[in-house]
Amino acid sequence: MHVAKMDVYGNSNIGLFGFATDSFCLVGNVFRKKEIKILKDVLKVPIIKTTLVGTSLIGIFSVGNSNGILIPKNSYEEEIKVLEKKLNVLVLETKFTALGNLILTNDNGCIISKKLKKEKETIENFLRVRVEIGEIAGLDLVGSLGIANNKGCLVHSKATKEEIKLIEKILKVPVKPGVVNFGSPWVSSGIITNSNGFVVGNLTTGPEIGNIDEALGFL
C-alpha cells in the first residue's frame, strides 16, 4: 500500500510535523508508535524523531532532499548535534527561520522564496541541485503551497501556468494543482511523501486522494 490517512493527536495537518525524502523521514516527537508504523509501511525509509527550536514543528522549520536537511539558526545546540549524527545538516544563517514554508525541493531541483535569494548559492551547493526563485499562486511561500517527490509535485489550486512551468523545469517532474484535508490549498501541511508513497491528513477526501495520487506520480 503506497497511501494512508492519519492524524497526530487529532490534528490532520501532519505535514507541519514532518517531511520525507527517498533516504529518510524526519518527524517531531509528537508521533506515536502507531503513526511511526504507518509512515514506515508507506514511505519505506528510516524514521527519525526529533525537535527543532524546541518544538515538534519539523515541517515548518526544516526542509531537505536525499542529500541533507536545512535547519534554522535558532535550532538548539543539542538538536543540531543529534541530527548531525544521522544526517547531513546545514544550519542556514538567515533571519527567516520557517524554512519548510519557503523552500520546495526534491532530488532534482529546488524552488525558493525570494526571501532567501541571498542564500541561493549556499542552498544550491548543499542540496546539490539547481535552485531558482519562484512563487506559487502569486505568493512566495513555495514550501507551504507545494509538495514534491521525485515522481511528481502537487501545488496550490490557483497556481498559474507560468509558475507550474518553472517548477516542472527545475524539479523535473509533472506538476498538478490540488488541495488536501477537505479543501486546504496549503498542500504541504497535510501530506508527507517520498517516491514510495504518501500519507495524508484524515480530513482528506477520496477525490482529493485520487488527485494527489496522480499529482505525486503514483497513477
The CATH class designation is Alpha Beta
The whole-angstrom Rg is 15 Å
Instruction: State the distance separating the first and last CA atoms.
Output: 13 Å
Portion in beta strands = 25-35%
- Structure annotation, total helices: 7
Largest sheet: 3 strands, mixed
Helical residue percent? 25-40%
The multimeric state of the shown protein is single chain
Order of helices and strands: EEEHEHEEHEHEEHEEEHEEEH
Low-confidence stretches: none
Shape: globular
Average per-residue pLDDT, rounded, comes to: 98
CATH topology: L-arginine/glycine Amidinotransferase, Chain A
Number of domains: 1
Task: Count all strands and give the number.
Answer: 15
Q: So, CATH architecture?
A: 5-stranded Propeller
Alpha-beta classification: alpha/beta
- In spatial order, strands of the major sheet run 1-15-14
What's the CATH H-level superfamily name? Answer: L-arginine/glycine Amidinotransferase, Chain A
Describe the structure in brief.
With 219 residues, the protein is of the alpha/beta class. The protein contains seven helices and 15 strands.
Give an overview in words.
Helix content is 26%, strand content 26%. It has one domain: L-arginine/glycine Amidinotransferase, Chain A. Strands 1-15-14 form a three-stranded mixed beta sheet, with helices on one face. Strand 5 and strand 6 form a beta hairpin. The chain has helices spanning 33-43, 58-61, 77-84, 99-102, 120-127, 161-171, 206-215; strands at 3-6, 18-20, 25-28, 47-50, 63-65, 68-72, 89-92, 103-105, 109-112, 130-133, 146-148, 153-155, 175-177, 191-194, 197-201. With 219 residues, it is of the alpha/beta class.
